Amino acid sequence: KMATPSLLHTFLPQVSLLLLALASSFVVVGGSEFDPDPITTQLQPFVDGWFMRVTDQRQNVSFATIFASFKPRDQDSFNNSFSTLLLSTPDVPMRIDQTILPQSKVTYTRRSSNVPGKISSFRISSQIMDKSEDMSYFDVNDSTASLSYVFPATIGVRIEVNMTNRVPWNSELPNSDGPEGLVIPFLPFHLPLRYYVHSLASEARYRIQDIKSSLILHEGNGYAHMEKNWGRVFVYYIYI
Hints:
Blueprint: H1 7-25, E1 46-56, E2 61-71, E3 80-88, E4 95-102, E5 106-110, E6 121-126, E7 136-141, E8 144-151, E9 157-164, E10 193-210, E11 216-231
């Protein structure tokens, strides 16, 4: 009597080929998903950006900062960056400030390991104003992060934040798992937008200072959400 092949034996070759295709389509580019991404070599636009929001419920102060660099289609390097501030205070519900910079005024310093799952460690520096002492930066080192950015276009403030005690999306896989799960990075096709949550609620100490008068407008404690978005598009307008 001839044995009937099981489903496993029937589809094993196809499953093996699929797994091989997934593995070959995945390229290890660094440790943490929060780190700056290498510029894609494909002939399509590419955006690498970071979003951070601090909420102080006690004083009814909330603000978000966005920093991103943009590579146009058919070019192999970034040509400009932008920084955005969304600020809500008890006296003014919402204000928006945005500055566009030539890429020559932006510096990425990556300090992390290329081993997947390692901690995130990098610094982004921006020369937004002419004076060297007005250098803006976003510095990340695993569970801690600091930000000092000037927004001179319409609001005219400097935002300073120190963040500690990061709360990852998944405490068991703090530097690799996020809202996308562990499958999407292995897909053979590329999504137009990827995103990764670095911290759900870091403890944050912040200060908002007027640029011209140096007056401290607001300062206090809150919680910070940090995430990274990268791909062919960057839908920052959803945070407004």
